[in-house]
Each structure stands twice: as C-alpha cells, then as structure tokens.
Amino acid sequence: MVRRFRSYFGRRQQMHAVRHHEEPHHRKRRLSVPERIGATGLFQKAIMQSGCAFNIWALNENHRIVAFKLANNLGCLSNDPEEIVKYLKNVPAIDLVKGTKFKNGTDYLDYKFVPSIESATVSYPFLPAHPEQLVNDRSPIPVIIGVNNMEGMVALSSASHADEINYLFHSKLSGVIPKPNSPELEMCKMMGKMWSNFAKSGDPNSSDLSFKWVNASASDPKYLSIDGDRTCMADGMINSNRLRLWQEISESVV
C-alpha cells in the first residue's frame, strides 16, 4: 500500500513538473574564469541551474572563521592555523562532514565550505577576486540560466528547486524512472537533447525540435517555457513582478 501511494504521488508530481517547468534565458553574458590557472579558453560555455556565483550561499567570505569554528567543534582549541590544519587532516571524513552542521543567527543556508576568495599568497588561485569583479574582466561566453516556476521551494507537487535534475539525470537514485512512451520520457529526451546540443556547439537548437530557442539579451529579454508539448518562447523577463518588487525594496533601502 505504501509503495502504491508513493508511486502514484511520484507520477503526479512529475506531471505537475512537466506542466509548470520553466527554463529562461539562453543568452550570452560574462562568466568568471580565473586566468592564472590556465583556465582562459578552457570553459567555452556554461549552464547554471537554480543558482549562480552571486547567490549568498555560493561564496564564503569568512572561511577562516568557519575553519576555526569547525576545528573547535571537533576538539581542537588551538588558534594556530598550522596546528589546526594538522589536526583536521587526521579527522575522519565523516566526522568532518558532521562537524560542519553548525549555524548562527545570521546564517541563511548551512553551506560552510564553498568557494572563497583566495589571497595573493596562493600561487595558482581558482578564485582570485570577488565574482562581481571577475565578471567584468573576462570574455563573454554563451550561457544557459534556468529556474523553476516554484524555485526556492523543495519537494512540492510542482516544479520546485532542483526538479530539473530528475529529467536530465533520471535514475533509481532520483526516484524518476520514466515509463516507455510517457510524457515524462519525452520531457527527458527533449531536455537532454537541448542541453547536449548546447554543450557541443553553444546552440541548444536542432532540426528535430518543434520550436526554436531564441537568444535573449538585456535589451530584448525572452525565455523558453518548457511545458511538455506546449514548450514555446515567451517575451519579457520571467517573474517580472517578483523582480520589480525586489528592485523597489532595494531602491528604498539604499
């Protein structure tokens, strides 16, 4: 009985995701690529789903404080960085992971060890400066940026955060195994085709698709609404009302 309920709910959830899933903005913009590690020219294109380098959880500017707090939680009370590094090297990996589960009143998400800006003393830094600075110093490359219509929510009967991953990498682990000739399988094929086309050539379009994904720009915003057999281009900025609200709030507090 439990298996039947879970199976039904899974199918229902997938169908809602098919009807409401949205992926906006195939457009060219700048992407930060560090030069000193020889990465210039290595990244020819990029796909960002449900986030980017400007999200508050994607960059830690207080990594030193976090490392000291982790060591303290695991029993190392030293203030010497070299002693802390030596101590942490001998801590089992599972304990390191468990030790990162700490928060304070200003934390938004419990992501502690994410990319951080490396100092000038590092020989080959991956992130030598803040993304806001790097984004203006590099050559533009083609980028796909995607969001879901219920982005920010998790595990809803709609297209919530990270649901697109199930269609791109469906497996028993994700709980999405499309049945033959089902709408879910067609959705998987369509998204896989566009993403692989883009990875190969920088253009998600191909002759076997029933629509054309048009490039967008800041002066001419548009996005592709992925909606099963009703997938089509839409004019304007996605979630424009939400963007307008946050812009007004931002301007009022500056």
TrEMBL record:
Family the entry assigns: Belongs to the type-B carboxylesterase/lipase family.
Pfam family, one: COesterase
Residue intervals of the Carboxylesterase type B domain: 39-156, 158-245
Keywords noted in UniProt: Glycoprotein, Hydrolase, Serine esterase
Protein name, as recorded: Carboxylesterase type B domain-containing protein
GO MF assignments: carboxylic ester hydrolase activity
